[in-house]
Write a structure and sequence with these properties.
The protein has 765 residues and is of the alpha+beta class. Among the domains are: 159 residues, no CATH class; 119 residues; 92 residues, no CATH class. Helix content is 50%, strand content 7%. The strands form 4 sheets. Strands 7-8-9-10-11 form a 5-stranded antiparallel beta sheet. A two-stranded antiparallel sheet has the order 1-2. Strands 3-4 form a two-stranded antiparallel sheet. A hairpin with a 6-residue loop joins strand 7 and strand 8. One of its GO terms (biological process) is spliceosomal complex disassembly.
């Protein structure tokens, strides 16, 4: 085959010169010197047929191609362009052109670093392709310095290379690099530290030496040598292979560690699941046993449903079995619903025939034995929360949470409570509180709080409050005390709901009381209900004046025909009145009359002192011991005894020499002598934890004066007015009020503060 025109692989002969077809291929070069893929002995015949013909002096030898270029030419070997080049005599590994002086591989570009100029800081831009081409042309190229030393340099070529350096480089496509998992781990700082490999000996030099690491050997300087075992490229490749193997081993080690962790987790999970399976199997076995017991309870309920006089005690052994043998299942699966469902029909039958007022503790005894099975009051109270308020730790009450009723609470609400409601509304009277009180006492600690509150608030207290409001001392058959006091221990914060009206009734009763009505029944119990000061003020205002009038107007001391009834009516109040007030009442109204009669008896010419002594003993025994121990009463009897002794000493001169006793004058003299001692006692009394009003009351009582409320108030200060008087009837005396730890008394049209001594002097005038 010949060519009419010059082309790739053609010679520079004239076109008219005939081209002779190449004979059989001559040996341009030994085929053993060529690589296998570039025309070696093992190359196919079709490829060997495209070898150029001619002498060895006009062709260039083949250049070994890099691996990636070999792969590239193998990939494009079947393309149209490659087939056309082969037809023109070109083969892979030889240069283009008739003499093979052209390039062997496609043009390769080298990307200059960003923002770097041409030959910046001696940077060389020679590519691997240009190095290979230079070596093929016979030039010596250094791998380290990237410098080219041509054998024959020409001025034109050098000028052309310098001009090419300023040309704009071609754009090169960025090559994507892929990283392995081990590289990513190493860059993230998670690669495990390399373990030591023992002692390292460097035998590269003449004398072996010990080094710390392989890096010291790789960084050590070396010089060219004829020793084939010290080829740098081989050592470099060996290091790359070793590093690659180390990375692979590290990856395998990490994978083995992960598998070991996974194996450990699977082992633990297997143990857990096996335990869960065994627990579930045990639970199934226990539930089967529970089912047998539940079936027995159901059979017992059906059996007792047909019995007329059945009792709930027959269920006790079965309920005990559930609680004792299966406590966890009882709470977890709410078996109390089964208990309540079993007893509900019988409870309805029993409650229908039950009278709560006649048999208050009915059913509660049996229910108490089943308290745990019925879950009575078993709701857990949430823990109290301590909060810090201004440095003080206090307990905050947790918010109330509405919870549904338990089965037993529902049974009480729907079966027990309606029966109790019917009986209390239709059959119970508050005047007879005993049946209702016994019913409440029997069930109060057993009932849930909301049922107990409903029983008190809706059924009991409304009827008690109505009975208190309708109570009258003339119409009612029971005392107010018997109506209210049985419920006081159970009312708690509801006590004011009943007591407010009851206290008003007591005040009204005392206001309208007269001695002819006799002593008020059960009045002593109200002392604990009223405030002490309020109680004393109420008695001073409504009772003491009436008792003084009774002794003054209706009581007479008559040794021949003594009427003790008025005195007995007064003595009945001795435990209700304050001791100083009652003592002063007797000193004022009783002892003056008694001493006058004793004096008249002692001045008689034929007096019998034995009879007088018996009369004295009679009167002293007529007073209770608590009254005899009162200071004023003791002084009165002592004064009578002194009068008797004086009469005995005077003998026949007694009728003329025995003076008539004046108890009030003697008391006034004694008060004047004790004024200083009394004044010294006032100051420490103010230091004590008592009110100034109580100090004034005690000071007045120590001077035999009454501190009586008037029920009026001062016009300007609006403070309550009191009367300081020695008269038990509340007449005369001094009108005062107490404010700002001072006693205020009238001074003309205005009130002025006075001392306690001045108060006593003005009250005795």
């Amino acid at each position: 085959m010949g060519f009419t025109k010059g082309g790739i692989g053609s010679t520079s002969s004239a076109p008219s010169e005939p081209v002779i077809a190449a004979p059989a291929p001559t040996k341009l070069a030994s085929t053993s010197e060529l690589p296998i893929d570039f025309g070696g002995n093992s190359a196919p015949r079709a490829q060997r047929s495209f070898l150029r013909s001619g002498t060895s002096s006009t062709s260039k030898p083949s250049t070994p191609l890099p691996a990636h270029e070999q792969a590239h030419f193998n990939k494009i070997g079947s393309t149209i362009g490659a087939q056309m080049l082969a037809k023109m005599g070109w083969q892979a590994g030889t240069g283009l052109g008739a003499t093979g002086e052209g390039i062997v591989i496609p043009i390769e570009s080298k990307l200059r670093p960003k923002k770097m100029g041409i030959a910046f800081k001696g940077y060389k831009e020679k590519t691997e392709q240009s190095k290979l081409e230079a070596r093929r042309r016979g030039e010596v190229v250094s791998d380290d310095e990237e410098e080219v030393r041509p054998r024959q340099s020409k001025k034109g070529d050098a000028k052309e290379k310098r001009s090419d350096a300023w040309k704009k480089p071609k754009k090169v496509k960025t090559r994507v690099e892929h990283k392995t998992y081990e590289q990513i781990v190493a860059e993230a700082g998670q690669e495990p530290a390399a373990s030591g490999i023992g002692q390292i000996i460097d035998a590269t030099g003449r004398t072996p030496r010990e080094v710390a690491s392989l890096a010291d050997i790789s960084l050590s300087s070396w010089t060219p040598s004829t020793d084939p075992t010290r080829i740098p490229e081989v050592r470099h490749n060996l290091r790359l292979i070793v590093d690659a193997c180390k990375n692979d081993l590290d990856g395998l080690a990490r994978e083995a560690k992960a598998l070991e962790e996974r194996k450990r987790f699977i082992t633990q999970e297997s143990i857990r699941l096996q335990k869960k399976v065994s627990d579930e199997a045990e639970l199934i076995a226990r539930l089967q046993q529970v089912k047998l017991v539940v079936d027995d309870i159901g059979a017992k309920a059906k059996e007792l449903a047909s019995v007329y006089e059945a009792t709930l005690d027959d269920f006790s052994p079965l309920f005990s079995t559930l609680l004792v043998q299966y406590p966890t299942e009882f709470d977890r699966y709410r078996l109390d619903e089964i208990v309540v469902a079993a007893i509900a029909p019988m409870v309805r039958r029993i409650v229908a025939q039950w009278n709560p007022l006649q048999d208050p503790p009915g059913l509660v005894t049996t229910f108490r034995t089943w308290k745990q099975a019925l879950k009575v009051n078993s709701v857990d109270k949430p823990p109290d929360t301590q909060i810090d308020i201004y440095g003080a730790r206090i307990v905050a009450t947790p918010p109330a949470i509405e919870k549904p009723m338990t089965p037993f609470e529902s049974l009480l609400w729907n079966v027990w409570l309606p029966k109790v409601r019917t009986c209390l509304n239709n059959e119970w009277s508050p005047e007879d509180p005993t049946p209702a009180v016994k019913l409440y006492e029997a069930w109060s600690t057993f009932l849930p709080p909301f049922v107990r509150d409903n029983l008190l608030d809706q059924l009991i207290l409304p009827k008690v409050s109505k009975a208190v409001a309708d109570w009258s001392p003339k119409r009612s058959t029971v005392s107010l005390h018997a109506l209210v006091f049985p419920w006081l221990p159970y009312l708690g914060l509801r006590i004011d709901y009943v007591l407010d009206d009851a206290q008003r009734k007591v005040k009204s009763l005392l206001r309208s009381w007269v001695p002819a009505d006799g002593a008020l029944k059960d009045l002593g119990g109200w002392m604990e209900v009223f405030d002490k000061g309020e109680w004393d003020a109420m008695l001073l205002k409504y009772v003491v004046p009436k008792l003084g009038s009774l002794l003054r107007d209706e009581f007479r001391v008559n040794p021949r025909n003594q009427n003790m009834e008025p005195l007995k009516q007064v003595l009945a109040w001795s435990t209700l009145l304050r001791g100083s007030v009652f003592s002063q009442l007797l000193e004022t109204e009783f002892f003056p009359k008694w001493l006058d009669v004793l004096h008249i008896w002692l001045i008689q010419p034929k007096v019998s002192f034995e009879e007088v002594a018996q009369w004295y003993s009679f009167w002293k025994s007529s007073f209770p011991d608590s009254v005899q121990s009162m200071p004023g009463v003791a002084r009165g009897f002592t004064r009578g005894l002194q009068l008797m002794n004086t009469a005995i000493e005077l003998g026949p001169d007694a009728p003329t020499m025995l003076k008539r006793p004046d108890l009030r004058a003697e008391q006034a003299i004694a008060n004047v002598s004790m004024k200083k001692a009394t004044a010294t006692k006032v100051a420490p009394a103010r230091i004590q934890e008592i009110t100034f009003r109580s100090i004034v009351e005690e000071f007045a009582a120590s001077h035999n004066l009454l501190f009586i409320p008037t029920g009026r108030a001062h016009e300007k200060s609006r403070m309550p007015l009191f009367r300081i008087s020695s008269n038990i009837g509340g007449k005369g005396g001094l009108l005062v009020y107490v404010q700002d730890d001072a006693v205020w008394a009238p001074d003309g049209d205005e009130y002025r503060a006075i001392t306690l001594e001045d108060m006593v002097l003005r009250a005795n005038k």
